[in-house]
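Q: Here's a chain of 140 amino acids. Please give me its 3D structure as tokens.
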Amino acid sequence: MATGTSPARDRATLLFANETFYRAFAERDPTLMGAVWAEQEPVTCLHPGWPPVEGRDSVLQSWHAILTGPASPDIECLHARAGIHRDTGIVICYERIGQDYLLATNIFIRSGDGWLLVHHQSGAAPEPGEGNEPPRRSIN
């Protein structure tokens, strides 16, 4: 943990980075999407139904295609839970796209610029119901 920060502040800044990722997605903003991904570390992305996408240029090209395509989906992030393991942050959340739900894992690394995304993966999930809703607490 960086000097002068607390676990609660670290978790809040990690969740803010995650929110920024979903804001870039929802606003269809390729520039903002590029700003949330790490530049100096290997990055990967597993879009539902796609083969793995590896490397910053390829990952950002995949997002550009999604964000600027005619069928770019509306998305909402729900029930985000964050855990921090040294300089690695993991956020698990539901994504609502129309009437469908996905579960996503977003992995961030701590850098001088804050938390930067190094991996995103999402896949089909049941609708979060009362019995399935995740607890409102962190994952660690």
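Q: Can you summarize the key feature?
A: Strands lie at 44-46, 53-54, 76-85, 88-97, 100-111, 114-125.
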